[in-house]
Each structure stands twice: as C-alpha cells, then as structure tokens.
Design brief:
8 strands; about 200 residues; alpha/beta; 7 helices
C-alpha cells in the first residue's frame, strides 16, 4: 500500500539493507546507454513494529563512486540509527562492507553490520520475504518511492531488481539466525500462475 504519509508508529525499530555495485568503468558514467545497463546501488531503511514494515528512505544510484556511496550511507545512518545494517556476505558486497568498517574507525561512528548468508535463489528470497507482508497488508511504501513500487508491481518482469533485493536484505536483519537454509527447484506453470497473486492486497 503506498501512501502520501507513512504514519509511522511511535518508536519503531529501524533496519537497513544495502545492495552495492562495483564502481563504474571509465566512460560508463558519460554514456547514457552504458549507464542504463548498470545495476543500481540501493540502500533502504525500514521501520518495523507489530509485524508491519514501513519503507522510510530509499537511496538509489547507478554504480556511484565509493566516496559518494560512503557519504550517503553515513548520512542515512545518522538520520535513522538502524539497529542493524545488512550486507550479503558474498563477492563485492562484502568488499564494500569492509570499506564501511574502515570508515567507521575514521568517523568514530560504529554500525552493527549484519552479514546475511542466504543460499536460496534471489527470486525465491524476494518472494519469500515479501509475499506474507503483501497479503497481510503489512508492507507500506511512500508514493514517492516510484522505482521500488515499479519493481514490486512488475516483478519478475524487470530489468533490475536491486530495490527489492535491498528491501529483502533489510527484512532479513530482523531474523534471529544468520544462515538461512533453503532448497529450491523449478516451479510448474500452474504454481507460477497461482503465485502471481502475491501482491493482491496492494493498490493505490
């Protein structure tokens, strides 16, 4: 459900999900075609209380330079003071997490980094993370979060799913365990048809 006012409850608990991308190659930031193909670096802050989730801030940029990303990260952190900040513990995401840890020492601003280990496919993770919240009317967007809403409505038929990925990483920060086990297999067409109603409770 997207609103003009998120109507946050009193004293929600905040979490942050980070889905970084490598810095752009030389020339990519100057080429509109190359820039359009880049994945988005996304940071999302959510507020949670009584099983409800409010997306309170979204940052998205096409492969920003590391210093720009670091500055924005600490700006968002100071504003919301999330209990945990989630990164996937794989590949480039972990490299960026290390950059943040180094920058914490310089700024004397210490963040609880939560390394999310998830062995499911990304599509399964997104559906598992959002389906129940959507069906129960417990996930709340602001109407200005247009890129996130577009990915949500059009998924899986999207060129990029970085906003949904960052959102599910933030949601996984609420879990007690760090390792999420999972097995998956190709679904049948009938199951796919039935699961396409996962957004049924959403509307303008």
């Amino acid at each position: 459900l997207w609103k003009t006012n998120l109507d946050l409850p009193e004293n929600p608990i905040y979490y942050m999900g980070v889905d970084p991308t490598p810095p752009p190659r030389p020339g990519e930031q100057q080429s509109s075609d190359a820039l359009a193909k880049l994945d988005n670096t996304v940071m999302i802050v959510i507020g949670t209380k009584k099983q409800h989730v409010w997306v309170v801030e979204v940052y998205s940029c096409k492969s920003p330079l590391p210093l720009l990303f670091l500055n924005k990260f600490f700006d968002m952190f100071e504003r919301w003071r999330p209990r945990k900040v989630g990164f996937e513990s794989v590949l480039f995401a972990r490299t960026y997490a290390h950059l943040f840890e180094t920058e914490m020492l310089k700024r004397k601003c210490f963040v609880n980094i939560h390394y999310v280990e998830d062995r499911r496919s990304k599509s399964v993770r997104i559906r598992d993370g959002l389906t129940d919240l959507a069906f129960n009317g417990q996930l709340h967007f602001h109407e200005s979060q247009t890129e996130l809403i577009a990915e949500f409505l059009q998924y899986p038929d999207v060129a990029h799913d970085d906003h949904l990925d960052a959102l599910t990483i933030a949601l996984m920060c609420r879990n007690v365990g760090d390792i999420i086990e999972g097995e998956y297999e190709d679904v049948t067409d009938q199951f796919q048809y039935e699961s396409d109603d996962w957004r049924v409770s959403f509307g303008s």
